[in-house]
Design goal:
The chain has about 200 residues and is α/β, with parallel strands linked by helices. The chain is about 25% helix and about 30% strand. β11 (about 150-155) and β12 form a beta hairpin.
């Protein structure tokens, strides 16, 4: 699979490395041209306002909207989850509305308040129990729509969600050696695109 990683700001190199370890071909996306040949796309962690500035500067807003509308798989982590949300607060900010969730920015505190914990799995997703979850100036999901499935929680709050092929994590799965989130997303991405599976299903 050719999986794009938005490479305007943030931890895109960590995502590219994690995707390669999970069996995908990572393509760094800095402009509209690569989007046409991608099977899936990652919006990485970083600073969402800086990403929005880069998206506008590089003429990526409409091409990204087209990508989201195409039904191809998307994964947003931390800042990427903010970009995908329907509504953003603390403070209010533009977003793409590709996922029916509302998020509160920096809800877990400052950079100094960063922490690592483990997740509880959502119903039917025992394979995602005990994920190591790195939270760095992380957003909090404060509302989920009726079509949103919760894959994992921390302290009862959703931290990994999806609707069809669009997934969002408020933590950083790419910063640990546990690749279950990426493998699960890639596996379902391969199925949704009717492509040969490049990764094995998670156990």
């Amino acid at each position: 699979m050719n999986v794009g990683v938005l490479a305007l700001q943030g931890d895109y190199t960590a995502h590219a490395g994690a995707l390669a370890r999970a069996g995908a071909r990572a393509v760094l996306v800095r402009g509209p041209a690569p989007l046409a040949r991608l099977d899936a796309l990652v919006l990485p962690g970083g600073e969402s306002t800086a990403m929005l500035f880069g998206i506008a500067r590089e003429g990526l807003e409409e091409p990204l909207r087209g990508f989201f509308a195409s039904g191809r798989p998307v994964l947003g982590t931390c800042a990427g989850a903010i970009l995908l949300a329907r509504r953003v607060t603390n403070p209010a900010q533009r977003s793409f509305g590709a996922l029916d969730i509302d998020v509160e920015r920096n809800a877990y505190g400052t950079q100094l308040d960063s922490f690592v914990t483990v997740t509880d799995a959502g119903p039917g997703h025992a394979d995602l129990t005990g994920l190591p979850a790195v939270f760095i100036r992380a957003p909090r999901i404060v509302r989920i729509g009726t079509a949103i499935e919760v894959l994992a929680r921390v302290g009862g709050e959703p931290v990994l969600v999806r609707s069809a092929a669009v997934w969002a994590a408020t933590f950083h799965p790419e910063l640990t050696d546990d690749d279950r989130v990426l493998r699960a997303w890639l596996h379902e991405s391969a199925q949704s695109r009717a492509l040969p599976e490049s990764v094995s299903a998670p156990h």
